[in-house]
Design goal:
The protein has 92 residues and is α/β, with parallel strands linked by helices. The chain has a single domain (8-84), classed as Rossmann fold, CATH 3.40.50. The protein has helices at 18-30, 60-69; strands spanning 8-13, 34-39, 73-76.
Length: 92
């Protein structure tokens, strides 16, 4: 984050948390933090999914989201998600 630039936070949430995360995201936006809320399963629905075809997925769609939004930090309610891989990309 550079001086004078607003923090950009990417928030990923599961369906059971999305309502509360929407309120959280809206509050952050009102405080000057640029946040984007996404449904985790839209970007990753891998193991342990009931659909075997989802067990192996690429990060292509998630990487596109990261490249377009350019977050300073990523948080997610779904522990096994591509958001964990952002650590290797230098995004906390």
């Amino acid at each position: 984050m550079t001086k004078g630039k607003n923090l950009r936070l990417l928030i990923g949430g599961s369906s059971s948390f999305i309502f509360h995360l929407k309120e959280f995201s809206d509050t952050l936006n009102n405080l000057g933090v640029e946040s984007k809320l996404v449904f985790d399963a839209d970007y990753y629905d891998g193991f342990p999914s009931r659909k075997i075809k989802n067990w192996i997925q690429t990060r292509k769609k998630f990487n596109k989201l990261i490249d377009e939004f350019k977050p300073d930090a990523v948080t997610s309610t779904f522990i096994i998600s591509p958001s964990l891989s952002t650590f290797s990309d230098g995004i906390p």
